[in-house]
Every structure is written in structure tokens, then in C-alpha cells.
Design a protein that fits this description.
It is built from 1 helix and 7 strands, in the order αβββββββ. 17% of the residues lie in helices and 37% in strands. A hairpin with a 5-residue loop joins strand 4 and strand 5.
Length: 167
């Protein structure tokens, strides 16, 4: 019997390890290719949205409807002006197809502390197109603690989501 210096079964073990390594490499490469094909660009969708610092606006629009001298017993004169914090926003679809956008806008006070948040967005925005509009915080917005509209000093995009459309 010749002595070869190898243990019995070592060739088989080496073959099994090579197959396992090939499967792992193929899996990792396939995952990378899948991510490259299906994944979005390395792009922060918040870069598609611009917001401007707004201003607190008081509106006495109820004055036109104020008539406490009529036959009705209720008071239709609003004593408090309607206040809103209004800001402008622009959403530009930097993708390669139509999309819907959902955006969370946070409000901050003079010290940079969180005051509250609101939502803006647009639907069916074509690739390369821009949609501009006004957003607002109003008396029905959800504020942190006992914050008020008058506490808002600035706004910033907190989160933006782009949902590509099939059409």
C-alpha cells in the first residue's frame, strides 16, 4: 500500500468547501447586481424639496360675515383672528419617471427646538417637473408641549418619500 501523505476524505472536504465558497460568492454578487438594478440612485429625496422660512399671518376674514344685528341668537363674529404660519415649498421630480411625493416639514423656535410638524406633497409629478405651493401650520396643528404658532421661527424638511408610479 502506497503512502501519499493525505488523509482520507480531505479531497472531498476541499471540494465541499469550494462549492460552499462559490455559492456564497454567487449569492453576494447576485445581491449586489439586484440592488444595482432595482435600487434607487444614491440620492437623498430630501434634496428634491425646498422650503422657505415663512411668516405668521393673522387674517380677519370673518369680518365680512360678522353680523350680530340679525335675527339669529348666535354670535357669528369671531373675536380672535385666524392665525397661520405660512411657508412656500417646491418639489422637483429628479427621478426618471412620474412619482408621488410625501414630505414631513418640521417647525423650530428661535433656539432651534422642535415646535411641531406638518405634511405637504404632490401627486403624479412628471420627471423633471416642479410643483410649488404654500404649506401652513394652523391652530389645529399638533404642537409639542404648550407651543403655539407664534413660537415658530423656521421650518425644515425632516423626511421626504418618493413613490415611483407605474404609468
Amino acid at each position: 500500500m502506497p503512502v501519499t501523505g493525505r488523509r482520507p476524505g480531505s479531497r472531498r472536504r476541499l471540494l465541499v468547501l469550494a462549492v460552499i465558497a462559490a455559492v456564497v460568492v454567487a449569492f453576494l454578487a447576485g445581491g449586489g447586481v439586484t440592488w444595482w438594478v432595482l435600487g434607487e440612485e444614491d440620492d437623498d429625496v430630501r434634496d428634491h424639496v425646498e422650503v422657505s422660512d415663512g411668516e405668521l399671518v393673522a387674517d380677519d376674514s370673518d369680518d365680512a360675515y360678522c353680523d350680530d344685528d340679525d335675527l339669529y341668537s348666535y354670535n357669528d363674529c369671531d373675536t380672535d383672528p385666524d392665525e397661520t404660519y405660512e411657508f412656500s415649498y417646491r418639489i422637483t421630480n429628479k427621478g426618471d419617471g412620474p412619482a408621488n411625493y410625501s414630505v414631513v416639514v418640521n417647525a423650530f423656535d428661535e433656539e432651534g427646538d422642535f415646535v411641531g410638524q406638518t405634511y405637504v406633497g404632490t401627486t403624479h409629478l412628471a420627471a423633471g417637473e416642479t410643483d410649488s405651493d404654500e404649506g401652513e401650520f394652523n391652530e389645529y396643528s399638533d404642537f409639542e408641549g404648550k407651543r403655539e404658532l407664534s413660537d415658530i421661527a423656521s421650518v425644515k424638511v425632516a423626511h421626504a418619500e418618493r413613490i415611483a408610479l407605474a404609468n
